[in-house]
Task: inverse folding
């Protein structure tokens, strides 16, 4: 079932005719995964357990393994993600003075499209 095309941190997209763009299948799953990972726990009043809160990791001393654990836990809670094969997660934390972003790469099988999806994003933290 289609949903509004609304990528995290961006505006709604419009079609060439001015309608609000819709998204479904693999791209919808990516949109849902990204929203789940970046939403802070307790941000949704009626679902306080929803969200991985990855943004809270940026700028704090945290190991890549901890971030990967949060991602894996949240991925298995998302209906858009098949549990087998397990998602593959890669974390990169640049070792540069003042740099606080975390780069994430995830490969998983979408639950509705049953196709491998590649999701890459940065959790920006700016400069410390």
Result:
């Amino acid at each position: 079932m289609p949903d509004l095309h609304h990528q995290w941190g961006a505006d709604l997209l419009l079609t060439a005719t001015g309608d609000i763009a819709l998204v479904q299948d693999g791209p919808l799953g990516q949109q849902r995964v990204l929203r789940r990972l970046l939403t802070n726990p307790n941000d949704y009043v009626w679902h306080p357990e929803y969200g991985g809160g990855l943004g809270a990791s940026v700028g704090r001393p945290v190991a890549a393994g901890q971030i990967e654990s949060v991602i894996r836990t949240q991925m298995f809670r998302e209906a858009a993600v098949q549990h087998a094969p397990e998602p593959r997660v890669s974390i990169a934390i640049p070792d540069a003075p003042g740099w606080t972003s975390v780069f994430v790469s995830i490969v998983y099988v979408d639950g509705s499209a049953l196709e491998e999806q590649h999701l890459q994003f940065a959790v920006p933290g700016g400069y410390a």
